[in-house]
Design goal:
Helices cover about 40% and strands about 20% of the residues. By secondary structure, the chain is an alpha/beta fold. The chain has one domain. It is globular.
Length: about 300
């Protein structure tokens, strides 16, 4: 089964750079939890929040537009908590570098794993999530479900060095990493061979613009969404689940699955995309600091000829 494809050809110097970065990540990963989360994380937070004020303008603009009902004090509190979460996310990412299955399952628990496995037994499934909670833990769902192999869809990075580094960091037992542009071909090529597949997508990125772009009101703003997950679910009759996390403590999260489609009932065009967007919007409103506010999600502007749904 083809997986973990890297479209970059690394020269000797780049390979050396990847190795150095990889082992630096590994050194952090094996450090005691207290050192990682109560020394390094605090240092990263101080630098990001107080010194460089990382993308503060982007964060505050996104928050003001998303929550017009909140006052300045409330928005600044969310921004401060977001900076702390982002510092934690750096440590989270490093902490999963090359660690074993048991340790990774301590970081991300899945209370409903048995129910989810029973509901999806014998069927391929589509899992959609967002940049909410620790998205780098998302592949750990494969550790709890031996009945499926996770086909984790990723967006290749422009830097060949960091693309290879993150491929190494994100590798997990019982999963494979597939570039976004190869997702459908990879699924068709491998469906029906061995274990069922669970196709995992982070679906809240700012997608490429198309003539038939689908626009929705998302967090009080007009936003364009890709419908690739919906197309897969409808075309191949797969159940579709919204996967999201709740934060328990520094570096520790719980995964939850919410069914958006059973794979059998007929649905209208874009209906599953709407269900996903509304589910994501709900969890963001419940705990806004866990979403990626420093991303320029709303940089595209709808033209008069494009329909808002």
């Amino acid at each position: 089964m083809a997986a973990d494809n890297n479209h970059h050809t690394l020269n000797f110097a780049q390979k050396c750079c990847v190795e150095v970065l990889w082992w630096l990540c590994r050194i952090v990963a094996v450090m005691p939890r207290f050192v990682r989360y109560y020394i390094f994380e605090e240092l990263i937070y101080f630098i990001m929040h107080h010194l460089i004020r990382y993308r503060r303008g982007v964060v505050m603009t996104n928050l003001r537009n998303s929550f017009p009902e909140k006052n300045s004090r409330e928005l600044k509190r969310i921004a401060r908590r977001y900076d702390r979460f982002l510092a934690e996310q750096v440590i989270n990412t490093l902490s999963v570098t090359g660690i074993g299955r048991k340790r990774q399952m301590r970081y991300m628990t899945f209370p409903g794993a048995a129910d989810y496995a029973a509901a999806t037994a014998g069927r391929d499934v589509v899992l959609v999530s967002g940049h909410y909670g620790c998205w780098e833990y998302f592949t750990a769902v494969a550790l709890y479900d031996d009945g499926h192999r996770l086909m984790s869809i990723y967006h290749p990075l422009e830097s060949s060095i960091f693309d290879e580094l993150f491929l190494r960091i994100r590798r997990c037992d019982n999963s494979m990493l597939v570039p976004r542009d190869e997702a459908i071909r990879c699924y068709i090529r491998n469906r029906g061979e061995g274990r069922n597949l669970a196709i995992g997508l982070i679906a809240d990125q700012n997608p490429f613009r198309r003539k038939d772009a689908y626009w929705l009101t998302f967090l009080n703003q007009e936003a364009i969404f890709a419908d690739g997950a919906e197309q897969l679910a409808v075309k191949f009759g797969m159940p579709m689940y919204f996967a999201y996390m709740k934060r328990l403590a520094r570096g520790r999260y719980e995964m939850y699955m919410e069914q958006l489609h059973d794979g059998r009932q007929p649905v209208g065009d874009h209906e599953l995309t709407v269900r996903y967007v509304r589910a994501l919007e709900r969890v963001i409103r419940e705990c806004p600091e866990l979403w990626l506010w420093s991303h320029r999600r709303w940089k595209q502007i709808r033209t008069p000829g494009e329909c808002l749904h």
